[in-house]
Write a structure and sequence with these properties.
alpha+beta; Tetrahydropterin Synthase, Chain A; three-stranded antiparallel β-sheet; two-stranded antiparallel sheet
Length: about 200
């Protein structure tokens, strides 16, 4: 089955798939597919850029409402407490927002990040990481050193920073991608404020 806009025939199966891939609304998906002339990948990129633009515009707005979420893994030997902020109590009580928070808590339990983002890493830890990487490439020319260190830091961020990690439910996206899409979908600024991960016998 196809739906026709003024310029492009849109396949309903592609529309459904795009909604599942991005979480965007039907009208946004139809507009993106029309702009992309029916190309699913291009439409996904259009929606992603739109989400980034929306997230950027909302990033300066205060987010003082939200949820404290807890997650206990089966067996009771692993748990997470997480604070995620939004702008209004209405959104904080929204099932979509709450489901997003639960997904983040499960991500933290499974992937064991240490920080929310690279910006939240203490400067002394950052300097120590850079010193280790610099020592590993000290025999390389300076321009090569910088490029290698940049790559090593990006890889390290994927390991220890929640927002840089691959999303456990869809490893084609990062947690930041999921957060950006959620901001665009809900229409409010959302901040992952802090978290603690507990494990029996851990530090």
């Amino acid at each position: 089955m196809t739906m026709t806009t003024k310029e492009t025939k849109i396949n309903s199966a592609d529309l459904t798939k795009l909604r599942e891939m991005t979480g965007a609304g039907m009208m946004d998906c139809k507009a993106a597919l029309s702009e992309a002339k029916g190309d699913l990948k291009t439409a996904q990129d259009i929606l992603r850029k739109k989400g980034l633009d929306i997230a950027k515009k909302k990033s300066t707005r205060e987010a003082r409402e939200g949820q404290i979420v807890s997650y206990i893994h089966s067996g009771g030997k692993l748990g997470v407490i997480l604070e995620v902020n939004c702008e209004t109590d209405f959104v904080a009580k929204n099932e979509t927002f709450q489901s997003f928070c639960r997904d983040l808590a499960m991500q933290i339990a499974a992937a064991h990040p240490l920080f929310v983002s690279p910006e939240s890493i203490p400067s002394e830890i950052m300097e120590r990481e850079k010193a280790i990487f610099l020592d590993q490439v000290k025999d390389k020319p300076a321009p090569v050193q910088a490029k290698i260190i940049e790559g090593k830091l990006a890889k390290r961020y994927e390991e220890i920073c929640l927002l840089n990690q691959k999303f456990i439910k869809d490893d084609s996206k990062t947690v930041q991608d999921i957060l950006t899409a959620m901001i665009a979908k809900i229409g409010e600024n959302i901040l992952v404020r802090r978290f603690v991960r507990f494990e029996v016998g851990g530090n």
